Each structure stands twice: as C-alpha cells, then as structure tokens.
Amino acid sequence: MDSVIGAETALLYHASVESKPSSSDQPIALQGQLLLADPSLRDGVFDHSVVLLAEHSSKTGAFGLVLNHPTGHVVGDLLKDEAFAPLRKVAVHQGGPVSCEHLTFSAFWWNHEKKQLRWAIRISAEDAIAHSHRPGTLIRAFIGYSGWNPGQLETELRRNSWITTQPDNALLGQNHDRELWTEILRHLSPYHRILAEAPPDPFLN
User: Fold this and answer.
1) What pTM value is reported for the model?
2) How far lies 40's CA from each of 1, 63, 199, in Å?
3) I need a surface site. Which of 47, 68, 145, 205 has the fewest CB within 10 A?
4) CATH number corresponding to 2-18+30-197
5) Does the CA dihedral 13-19-23-27 come out positive or negative?
6) 3-state SS of the chain?
C-alpha cells in the first residue's frame, strides 16, 4: 500500500504533530489557539479566516492551517487510486498560502479529560484512515499551510491583524466554511458580535 500511495502522491508530506504545552521559548502561549482574521485583514488567503495555530515558537516561528476555506473538492476528485477509497469523501481545504502544490491530511479530536482540542497534522493517508476509525474524529485534507517566520506573527498581533481565542469541542461539529469565522467571532463579546455582523464596507451600509 505504501508504494501505491507513494507513487500517486509523491508530494504528500508524512508527519504528525500533536498539541504540546508551551515551553520557555514560547513567551506568548499561542500554540493550540485559534487565530481569527481581523475584518481589516482583506488579504485574499486570510480574509475572514480561522487558523488553528499548531506550532508556535520564538525560535522557529509559527505554523497553522486555515480551517474554513473549502476548495469545493473532496479527496476523490484529486486522488483516483483505490488505496484512497476510505478518504474519497474527505473535504479538501485551502490551508494557507505556503506549499500549495502539496496535499496533506490532518485529524482533529476532542480530549474530554483535558478539555482540549488535539490533532495530528500533515499525516500520511494510512494514518488518516486509521484516525478516521476513532469516534468523534474529524479528518480533513489541506492544500498548502500558513507559516510565519520568527517574530512575524507577534508583529501582526501587535498590529491587531488577528483575534485569538481558545477552540472548544463545538468546533468539530461546525461547518468549516467561511461562516465559521462569523459564528466564532460573534460569541466572543458584544464588541466582537458587532465586528462579525458588520458589512465588508461600513460606508456602503
């Protein structure tokens, strides 16, 4: 099975990353949090985006995946080999602007004991299939990812380009489309509700 999958997806990354507690090189403990794009961030890739920040370190920078930009495709549209049959209905999302030629898989589930969102990021197809048998696990495929150089995300946060919040278990049951940004933001506070419901250009309202 490995050789078949390797032949069809030579660009597929094979890696697994789980949520880890912050360490001394993480002065801002953002790993595991959601980044919601501020309405002023009109970049095409990050417009109204919800990013799961899977890695964050002052030494190596940050890595995340945009959760709510579906491509409209499923894995079966892109990978025809029978080895991918268990994943053919998995939705494909645009994970970010970096390495958009790569298709990767990720699994997300809720740890009820620790009340934390857990994940395995950029895993192989075989691992994705194995994770899919875990009750309550969400499998997604991503094209590209979101990355920041050391200090870059911190600068963007100081410019108020992002709104940070903790994920909850409702995230796994929500539609991961562009409405996810609105649904999360509107429940943060009355102020954020106004932001979420404001028209793209207030002067046109």
Assistant:
1) 0.82
2) 47, 22, 12
3) 205
4) 3.40.1740.10
5) positive
6) CHHHHHHHCCCCCCCCCCCCCCCCCCCCCCCCCEEEECCCCCCCCCCCCEEEEEEEECCCEEEEEECCCEEEEEHHHHCCCHHHHHHCCCEEEECCCEEEEEEEEEEEEEECCCCEEEEEEEECHHHHHHHHCCCCCEEEEEEEEEEECCCHHHHHHHCCCEEEECCCHHHHHCCCCCHHHHHHHHCCCHHHHHHHHCCCCHHHC
Check if the beta carbon of residue 138 is closer than 8 Å to that of residue 37.
no
- Helix 190-197 to helix 179-186 angle (10° resolution) is 160
* Per-residue pLDDT at 201: 61
Question: pLDDT tens-digit profile of 123-161?
Answer: 999 999 999 999 999 999 999 999 999 999 999 999 999
Nearest-angstrom CA–CA distance, 190 and 195: 9
Residue corresponding to tokens 């997604």: 140
Angle at 194 between CA 189 and CA 197, to 5 degrees: 120
